[in-house]
Specification:
single chain, about 400 residues, mainly alpha, A middle domain of Talin 1, about 0% strand
Length: about 400
């Protein structure tokens, strides 16, 4: 028990908790100084500190989720990580939505920004890095196609359908929201059931890392593994999820507790961040959608590094599990949650996107479907995704 605590409650984990909770407590004593309109230098300083601490805590959440993911194995591990990221996003969007000012489009702006970051910037970089280092990479086409099917449906319900059947502003009518929430959540739950149950094997690496080298070595000679080697290989057979939960129960519980303790400062600091961000962007006359981009960058930066590390190691299916899985969770959980918040607080949630963003998102989906339909993905496809993301950045300030 003591050894487990030492490996989980590390000095870095303690430092994150101290920073997160310490800054929150400090803000309780200085809130009057930061009340709008606060002096610009003080506002910027406070905003930088809060965002930095939220990022540090977010990295802590992702670190614990990664440890849990490594223990549970894919697809369970990637699912823990993506849902943790989704939780942080919902917290930040809710903080802005419930804060001062009119933020009817914050959910749309944030989810669209996250979508373009995930599907173009991150996947583009991962394909570029993985393709340049390992050449063409083989993915599990059935698993990726499942992700893409859900992304297309959820994206249509979130960004396109409200413009066609909703209010003139692009929000669902109040009587339309409940069916959309039920259908979206129901489809997401069914997807998770299939991903973690009957179709779990479709979300594992098509070609395990190092398998190609091992295969070529075995083809070069006619030697066969010795009985001792065969015994080791038998011992390396992956455990089932029930056996893992039973064997590593203490570690899993401790990491979940630490994950929650690290998430709470994000929840508490997000309200102050939303207030200061609204004040600062308003004074600068920045585009309204920029606050959604800031949230998206905070939310997905930690998982970006995890995805790039997987690409560097040639784990292209893990990249898909992290990125496409995060996209499915983001639209499948965030949009229904925000709609529920809007219903409870009697706020209008505008979801319909602009023509340029809809066009760029449609192009993104087309490139994704065509690219991942092949047996392998390459660096060229990564470059195409990066180009789309650059155009999205230009459109944001157009």
């Amino acid at each position: 028990m003591t050894a487990a605590l030492r490996t989980i409650i590390t000095p870095t984990a303690i430092l994150r908790l101290v920073l997160g909770w310490g800054v929150f407590i400090a803000l309780q004593f200085t809130s009057s100084l930061l009340a709008p309109p606060a002096p610009m230098p003080l506002l910027v300083t406070a905003l930088v500190v809060i965002i930095a601490v939220i990022l540090i805590c977010a990295f802590g959440v992702v670190t614990e989720a990664e440890h849990l993911g490594n223990r549970l194995g894919d697809p369970y591990g990637s699912l823990v990580l993506t849902i943790s990221i989704c939780l942080i996003e919902v917290i930040l969007i809710a903080a802005v939505l419930l804060g001062p000012g009119d933020h009817a489009t914050i959910a749309r702006d944030s989810v669209m920004a996250v979508s373009m970051i995930i599907l173009n910037a991150v996947i583009g970089l991962c394909l570029l890095v993985g393709g340049l280092r390992h050449g063409a990479l083989t993915h599990n086409r059935t698993g990726v196609s499942n992700y893409l099917v859900m992304i297309v449906v959820f994206a249509a319900l979130a960004f396109a359908v409200p413009a066609l059947i909703g209010t003139p502003d692009g929000a669902y009518e109040s009587w339309q929201e409940i069916p959309i929430i039920v259908v979206t959540v129901g489809a997401y739950v069914f997807f998770l059931y299939r991903q973690m149950g009957p179709q779990a094997h479709e979300f594992t690496e098509a070609v395990p890392v190092g398998a190609a080298a091992a295969s070529s070595s075995s083809n070069a000679g006619t030697s066969h593994p010795s009985p001792a080697e065969a015994a080791v290989e038998a011992d390396d057979e992956p455990q089932g999820i029930v056996e893992i939960l039973s064997t590593h129960r203490v570690e899993i519980i401790l990491r979940l507790v630490l994950l929650v303790a690290t998430v709470l400062p994000i929840v508490l600091l997000s309200h102050d961040m939303a207030t200061l961000l609204d004040d600062g962007l308003g004074r600068l006359g920045a585009p309204v959608a920029l606050s959604g981009v800031v949230i998206a960058m905070i939310v997905f930066l930690p998982e970006t590094l995890t995805s790039l590390r997987a690409a560097w190691n040639g784990e292209i299916q893990r990249v898909s599990n992290l990125c496409h899985g995060a996209q499915v969770s983001t639209v499948g959980l965030t949009i229904p949650t925000v709609l529920v918040i809007g219903m409870l607080t009697d706020q209008q949630i505008v979801l319909a996107e602009s023509p340029i963003n809809l066009a760029l998102f449609a192009i993104t989906l087309l490139v994704s479907v065509i690219g991942f339909a092949g047996k392998k993905v390459t660096a060229v496809q990564g470059a195409a995704h990066i180009i789309i993301f650059v155009v999205f950045g230009l459109a944001l300030f157009a």
